[in-house]
Fold this sequence. Notes:
Its main location: cytoplasm. By secondary structure, the protein is of the alpha+beta class. Helices cover 32% and strands 18% of the residues. Strands 1-6-5-4-7-3-2-8-9 form a nine-stranded mixed β-sheet, with helices on one face.
Amino acid sequence: xxxxxxxxxxxxxxxxxxxxxxxxxxxxxxxxxxxxxxxxxxxxxxxxxxxxxxxxxxxxxxxxxxxxxxxxxxxxxxxxxxxxxxxxxxxxxxxxxxxxxxxxxxxxxxxxxxxxxxxxxxxxxxxxxxxxxxxxxxxxxxxxxxxxxxxxxxxxxxxxxxxxxxxxxxxxxxxxxxxxxxxxxxxxxxxxxxxxxxxxxxxxxxxxxxxxxxxxxxxxxxxxxxxxxxxxxxxxxxxxxxxxxxxxxxxxxxxxxxxxxxxxxxxxxxxxxxxxxxxxxxxxxxxxxxxxxxxxxxxxxxxxxxxxxxxxxxxxxxxxxxxxxxxxxxxxxxxxxxxxxxxxxxxxxxxxxxxxxxxxxxxxxxxxxxxxxxxxxxxxxxxxxxxxxxxxxxxxxxxxxxxxxxxxxxxxxxxxxxxxxxxxxxxxxxxxxxxxxxxxxxxxxxxxxxxxxxxxxxxxxxxxxxxxxxxxxxxxxxxxxxxxxxxxxxxxxxxxxxxxxxxxxxxxxxxxxxxxxxxxxxxxxxxxxxxxxxxxxxxxxxxxxxxxxxxxxxxxxxxxxxxxxxxxxxxxxxxxxxxxxxxxxxxxxxxxxxxxxxxxxxxxxxxxxxxxxxxxxxxx
Length: 620
């Protein structure tokens, strides 16, 4: 070894720590480039800050981060015009695992009194916002490189030094030459890392992770430089400087959308909690099945650098919202991929969720405009009723429904305002088929009495009403649940007299259907139909029972068969011979099941019964 080369041992148990960084700390290999670019950007911000008091630190006008792949040499070089490092800096910052010069510099800035810094031209605090905090991001380079060298010259110094290591427990330091202050990091790539010699791959990684940081990044290919990042974080600009076209451009970029956003939310939170958010509610359903995807994909940035879109910044019932949240001071763990469960992140989530709900509440005042949103994302928003107890009362007024009484969409507050005198409950009916709902026999008695019923047909409608339970002190009741008493409301028109033999018919039907129903009873909530099913007791309604059966979890208790004593079919059975009742009982039950969107117990036997009945009415 040359006498000018110094060999040193790492200042920590490097074998175990480097193995952790390379194999466990990062889930995605490409993260190494984000870490090195972040370090380079920090170095340039540090130089820019020091230039406020030291003319020797002024950045050159073309200062940028350059990424240079060399296929022949199998090296990847990241070079910057930042503050640079002295020999001592290299030993301290790179020679000791988890010692971060960025963190130490950031701490010194926080200790700096405001009077000791000058205000920037834009009136903002010129102290840089630095990305690296933990001193391990640099070592992610060893995920793709078997040897790394760092040549650096500190601004204001004449000499340069090269730090080099194979990540095996030691490093070397030796004098070097560098014409200008800054740093060159050269990665000698492993055999399985050829993809990071391809310009298109490098461009993709930079645009994914660092597209919006203010420091220019250039990809050098065949001696030519091409810009690899936008360098402008739109959300950081004042709203007065942003046109609708710019908003739409970012909307299409972050969400891969082709429509225009239905709502754009752009604000900056200041005070104890500081962040900037630019969020979009799409104007159309995305192509992907977002209803099946349960996680929010709002992008989290820290000082413009993309961190993750898996921070769950919004609850799953707002997962249709897209955009960016950018914060200055969110604590992250060492990998910056897996966020700590910190109170700061929890407060950001609450604040962002509250702001989106406030926007929806404001936009809901325009019925026609809100209807477009509801038809796209209403079923997802309903999930918040049974998932988010804290926000339930805020979500409920935002829900919209079809109704048995009015055209178009209606809300719970509007329903309550239309309730009849003496009406104590909000009635609803759930089924799979929206068109069949309005024709359901379950509604006949309610319509006859002028009682409005909300018609629910979304896949989540079987679940959330029980979670909400009440609205404005009015209980929600499914019309298929047994025990509904409508006697206080007189029906329109003449009801007619029930036949004398109805009690005997009820008893005979109950005996014939003992294995299939929990009860048979006469009802006054049917007008045109002969029979209808209802749930027994206070358990789940019929739709929930059907869902449970489909999921193989049983169907709850047996249903109740309700008969209309004034219907010609029922009257004929009541007045006819009792011997005909057992044969008719099964057909009546199957008719009730079909009316509710279910299938006959034995479709083949039911078809034969109907065919025989039709044949008996055909002329011989």
